[in-house]
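Hi V.,

You were right to ask for the full record rather than a summary. Here it is.
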Amino acid sequence: MNYYAAVREAIEKHSPGESILDVGCGGTDTVMAGSFDRRYAVNQTPIPDWPCDAELIIGTWPEVELPESRFDVVTCCQVIEHLPDEAIPAFVAKLEAVAETLIVSVPFMWPKGMCKYHRQDPVDEEKFRGWFSRQPGSISVIQDGRLCRLVAVLGLA
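Predicted structure:
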């Protein structure tokens, strides 16, 4: 998928570093991009045959306890659109609290109801910016077949 290439490219631009954390990894290997001394991934459920050389932390964000208080890069790909409105502030606040650089992707302008698990569609740039206290340093809209995804890099506030 093209948007994962864009996410990996953003990670590469912000490495080398000491630590990277992928929130809602879902079995992807995004956490393996870049050059980092320590790698962590958070998922709600165990992932059989975890394919990455990264520590997999099982827990629900934002309640999960982390091994470090701050990470050079935090990624969160294709997760926020699944959250109800009332869960987004705490979810995003913890992302921003632990990340030097935050890289986020969400579906861009998918029609409401297209995915039964999405609670935020459609997401445009204004809605996306409204979730964060940080301003994106960059926002890209990536075409993946007939669908688009927004990939943003948010630095320190």
